[in-house]
Amino acid sequence: MPAKTSFPADLFAGHRFAVLGLGRNGTPAAKALASMGATVQAWDDGEVGRKALEGWKSASGKLTVAPFENLDGFDALVMSPGIPHILPAVHPVAAMAKAAGVPILSDADLLFQAVRKSRSRARFAGITGTNGKSTTTALLAHLLRHAGLPVAEGGNLGPASLSLPLLPDNGVYVLEMSSYMLERLATLHFDTACLLNLTPDHLDRHGDMAGYAAAKAHIFDRMTGSDLAVIGNGDAWCRDIAASVKARDIPVETISGQDDETADFHLHESAVVSHGMVIARPGKTLPGTHNAENACAALAMALRLGVPSNSLAKGIGDFAGLAHRQKHVADINGVAYVDDSKATNADAASRALGCYSRIVWIAGGVAKAGGIADLVPYFPRITKTFLIGKDAPILAETLAAHKVPYEIVGDLEHAVPAARQAAETEDAEVVLLSPACASFDQFPGFEARGLRFAELVNALKDHA
Question: Which positions carry the signal peptide feature in this UniProt record (predicted)?
Fold first, then answer.
């Protein structure tokens, strides 16, 4: 079929959708569904969200912004991922949906439905895991695009799923899938899907680690023997899921960022190797064993999706990396300044801390369960820590207990110049922003935190 960039204007004619939450996912979902001919009622508990749709009109569907009294007669409720439908408390609109027998769906599921209703046979690749999802998603999309395939990437990373274009039969949707999104799938079938790793995260939403793992495993729900599951072998949760997927006669390739010959794709002498064959060598934009794991996953999926092996080596070498994931910002007086703002939990921060030997560390924000206790093995690498944000005192207790020098400085405006002085005094190799915490106490998101760090570093550079 010829390439297209938009979905038919009558694709969802006669359908009614409710959209709750008008942020990064909800607003594009409401607009897209109305543009495809659906009748859409949207609502956000905050005035700012509602204003995002004021005055917007669709030529085909009907879009209204109004609170919900009931959901009788709706085909589905699309809830923004951050709004809970089970734990820690059921949102009232989710309760309405349950009472009316209306499914609660992710916008990614409706993208899949729209693609198939448009008669495109474009394939779907899904990536999940506690850490590494965004890098793997971007890398896989890059490898596919480098090989000349039509690609659209998004989901939990970048554009919302329903803002992506319609792809032709040879196209591939590469979707980063959060646990919140995976709980709300009814039809989405991935031709290849990856679970990178599992460590404790979002336990308030899933109850416990078993609930979190079960949510992540939904990425494999509708796969068949014609598909490929790619699963990390670095933790017991992933190994158990791999065994259960194999028991369903679904092909599984295991991955490791270590020199681990038990994995189907693993690192050996700085190269990704599969079954004794060198596949490609990750470049400088993919440092550390965690990025080797990401590279293994992307390469395994790319091969399954038909990318020629001779295209992979050049493609991975051209990968520029992602903003806020160990992104080099500047060198000042021999010290590297690295933005790893995406590290919003301890496990993510460990990936960056493991890449350097003498570190001035900037950390803090809203701590996750367990704080930074799991980072104790990396403390000998830290010459000094500067703590920012709401839960700085909690992190300080852990550092003090292990005699790691620290200061609570409150914000990045104080942390960056103090870190520069400490780095040059202590002969550190890097000033690393890897907060191990969420950012919402001081910033709209980790992106804004990383951008502010870069601004402050570049201001230092200008006056160096």
Answer: none
